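Q: Sequence in, structure out?
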Amino acid sequence: MLNFRIPNTFLPHWQSKCDINTKKIIDIPIIHLAEAKQRNCPLNVQRYIDQYGGVAKYGWTYTTLANVIIRFVGHVVVETIEGKLLCVTPSEFDISSIKFIPDDETRIQTNENGRLPVHTVPLYDKFYIVKYAYFENLISSIRSKYPARTVMSECPKGVVMSDEDSISYTMAINELSHITNHHLLPFIRTNTKRNDKCPCGSTLKYKKCCERRLACYY
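A: Exactly. Output:
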């Protein structure tokens, strides 16, 4: 029911909650290349550079969950020979450009498995929202131990999570589900106005989308 979505604007009071400098957000066009894959920006960028030249530029993209959680995901774009920034990675969203926060520290945080960093930040100090962000970050830390694009179960290539990681991963998923159903949805229901965009991530107004479905959460 709830999905992370790209916010129209980065609200000023969000910055006080984040340890990433969001004062410089650049709108970068997405170009479509043959064989480019979603969630594999380092490889997509390297292929572009090998063919056309340029250098890799590291930074962040961001999405929000109903404006109560923000997730920063490390991302790589191309700086062309002419000095223009281009995103060469297909987006999961129906967009023609991305909001990009340049940050050289992202390159340093990228690990040997090719995993770019992911940081989830609570935008409210309420216990269950902070807890939700904690479990999101726990899941990201577990994923970071395994090669990029590894499915978090038995992978076709034979990569399997350790028993300890498997237990922690399953526990975190279950906790997120519990927090969502018993705390997050009721909070969102009482804090979403009827003419606001629906927290499910659609472009519809709340009153024309999930208002009735969320009415059962008190």
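The chain is about 30% helix and 20% strand.
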